[in-house]
Each structure stands twice: as structure tokens, then as C-alpha cells.
From TrEMBL:
Signal peptide: 1-15
Taxonomy, superkingdom: Bacteria
Keyword Transmembrane helix: yes
Alphabetized UniProt keyword annotations: Membrane, Signal, Transmembrane, Transmembrane helix
Species annotation: Pseudohalioglobus lutimaris
The name this protein goes by in its record: Uncharacterized protein
Transmembrane segments: 178-197, 204-224
């Protein structure tokens, strides 16, 4: 309820907008000036527009919005000089074919203070033109932020390795607001409002109903994400056998390394030490090496001390790895500095297999 109320709140911050009449053409040629400013580039394919006589307040919370009629330029160059500096700053953005591109300036360190001049640059192919309608600088309001959050929750992206242990439920893995936290916050607000309203007449069934409805709504986002992922999974793996599925998966390089190591390992009950600096690659290698007697020291020294190793043990190094191996002398350096003789069984661009020599 409170979330829906936020959508209706107009939270627009003070915006600065410039239309076709506000620009001065410093490079290029004006072809037509009406609803928009139609320009052709100079011989070098350049168009440069200025905003004369404007004192512009710069803020890291702003976003730059551009509106074009027809195809936009491939890139937009934003050029400015702050009132407290003689340095000229420049930033470029790719439009990706969007005729109404928006660029977030939150991470631009020099976009602050006051600017006495602002220029817009474009590069075009000779003989082409562009039509610019307006440019707007504004901080996003509540309505815009809520709309972005809802889009981030509904939009689909295929699963990534980072989703293995944590699923944030957002389009970008580490960018909130996250739905679970938002739902928990509004459940708490609803419960407090209900208890304050009913006081002694409050019933636990109503409390349970509020929590259940919120849980179902949150789970619906998860079920929708599963349904979308189903199509990607089906397209990638449908009709393939077990070994074929491994070959088209993201872990195929580690899997192939482990399978080749398995064929090269000899002995009735060999011990295999996994050496890798990567949590993901190390865990995958340990998984694919099953059912061998496998050891992996996660987030510590990649290899044990000399006293824990014995002839016939194997070491599977999986990149990225920092083991110190001297191929010419057949020596492997161990913590805290001991060296042992090893036999290289095979190596490829993903790793190598070593056997502790007798």
C-alpha cells in the first residue's frame, strides 16, 4: 500500500532544460530549426553545440537526458568548464541507438559545483544529419526511482556465477533497492499500522495474513524469474546428453581439465590437492574430481607444508593459481619455503597436474 502511494508522489527535482533555440552552433551547419535543431557535421564529421550565458548547477545526483528526432549519434560528448577551475572536462556516452538516451552522472567525480560553459559534441558520418529536440539535467524524483526499481525487479537477465549463493532479484547484481529488503520493510510498517489501529482487538490471523500475502507477492517475482530462465536453459541444454551439456556450460574448461587429470591419475587411493586462488574454479575442480580423495584449502595457502605430502600424491593447479613451479628442474616450492620434486603429468592453458615424486 505504502509502496503504491510512493508511485503517485511527484518527486521531481528542479530541472534545467535547453531546447533548440537555446543552443549556439560552434561546429557544423544548421539545416532546419523547428521542433528540433537539425544539423549536419563539418568536413571532419563534427558537430559542437554550446549553451551561451548559462550558469549551470552541477550535482552528482543529476542525470543527463537527451531527445532526438530520428536516429541518434553513436556517441554524445559532454564538455564543461567549472567556475573554480580553468581545466576543460570531457565525458562521452554511447547511445546504443536510443533516441532518448539518459546518462547517470553520479560516478563522475568532476561533475560538481558551478559551470560557466557547457558544450555538446557529436560525431557523424559526412552527408548525414541529426535532429536534437532538447537536453535536460535533473535529479531523479521518487516517481522515477520507484519506476526504475520496479523495472529492475521485473526485467530478466540470465543467471550469472554470482547468483549461486545470493540472488538479489535485481537486474544488476549489486545495485538495489533489493525486493526482499523492501518487502520486509513494508511488512513491518503494515504490521505496526495494524497493531496501532486495532490495539487490543488485533488478531494473530490478521498478522499471519499480512505476512502470507507479502510472502506470496515476493515469491511471485522469484517464480517469474524461474519461468524466464526456463527458456534460456531449454534453448541451451535441451536434447543434449550429460557429457554434451558439460561442453556447452560455463564450467567446460575446468571440467575438461578435471576429466583429463582423472585419466592421468594412477594408484588405488590417490590424494589430490587442488591449488587455485578462485573460489569458483577451485570448487568446480573439487566437484569434477569426485570421487577421488580431494583436498582444497579455500582462501588460504594453496598447498600444504611438505610434511603433509607423500610420494604418489597429486596436485591439480587450476588457474588462477600462484604456485611456484620450476618446470626445468621439476621443483615445486611449498610454504614456508621448502621445495619438493614433482613429475608433470600434463599441462594446458587452464592448469596442470603434478605428481609428488618418490
Amino acid at each position: 500500500m505504502f509502496f503504491l502511494l510512493l508511485i503517485g508522489i511527484a518527486g521531481t527535482a528542479r530541472a534545467q532544460t535547453w531546447s533548440a533555440d537555446d543552443f549556439s552552433v560552434e561546429m557544423g551547419t544548421v539545416v532546419h530549426q523547428g521542433a528540433g535543431l537539425t544539423l549536419e557535421p563539418n568536413e571532419q564529421g563534427q558537430v559542437l553545440l554550446g549553451i551561451p550565458g548559462a550558469t549551470i548547477a552541477l550535482s552528482s545526483g543529476q542525470r543527463a537526458h537527451f531527445t532526438f528526432l530520428g536516429p541518434p549519434p553513436p556517441k554524445i560528448y559532454l564538455i564543461w568548464r567549472r567556475s573554480d577551475s580553468e581545466q576543460l572536462f570531457q565525458l562521452s556516452f554511447a547511445t546504443h541507438g536510443n533516441s532518448r538516451p539518459t546518462f547517470d552522472l553520479a560516478t563522475v567525480a568532476d561533475w560538481r559545483g558551478q559551470s560557466e560553459s557547457l558544450q555538446l559534441g557529436f560525431r557523424l558520418e559526412p552527408g548525414t544529419s541529426l535532429t536534437l529536440v532538447d537536453v535536460r539535467l535533473a535529479a531523479p524524483g521518487i516517481r522515477e526511482r520507484v519506476a526504475e526499481a520496479l523495472h529492475s525487479w521485473r526485467a530478466f537477465r540470465p543467471w550469472a556465477p554470482a547468483d549461486i549463493n545470493v540472488l538479489t532479484g535485481t537486474l544488476t547484481f549489486n545495485e538495489g533497492p533489493y525486493p526482499a529488503q523492501v518487502f520486509a520493510f513494508f511488512i513491518l510498517l503494515l504490521l505496526l499500522a495494524y497493531l496501532a489501529w486495532q490495539r487490543s482487538r488485533a488478531r494473530w490471523t490478521a498478522v499471519a495474513t499480512i505476512i502470507l500475502c507479502a510472502w506470496v507477492a515476493l515469491d511471485a517475482l522469484w517464480q517469474w524469474r524461474l519461468w524466464q530462465q526456463l527458456g534460456v536453459t531449454r534453448a541451451k541444454y535441451a536434447g543434449l546428453g550429460s557429457s554434451q551439456k558439460i561442453q556447452v556450460s560455463e564450467s567446460n574448461k575446468v571440467a575438461n581439465l578435471a576429466m583429463r587429470a582423472t585419466r592421468a591419475i594412477e594408484g588405488p587411493d590417490p590424494r589430490v590437492f587442488i591449488a587455485s586462488q578462485s573460489d569458483r574454479e577451485g570448487m568446480l575442480a573439487a566437484y569434477y574430481m569426485a570421487p577421488h580423495n580431494t583436498y582444497w584449502h579455500r582462501r588460504g595457502d594453496e598447498l600444504p607444508e611438505n610434511r603433509f605430502l607423500r610420494p604418489g600424491d597429486y596436485i591439480l593447479a587450476v588457474n588462477p593459481s600462484t604456485i611456484l613451479y620450476d618446470r626445468s628442474d621439476g621443483l615445486l616450492r611449498l610454504p614456508p619455503g621448502d621445495a619438493i620434486n614433482v613429475i608433470e603429468r600434463f599441462a594446458n592453458n587452464k592448469g596442470l597436474l603434478l605428481e609428488v615424486a618418490p
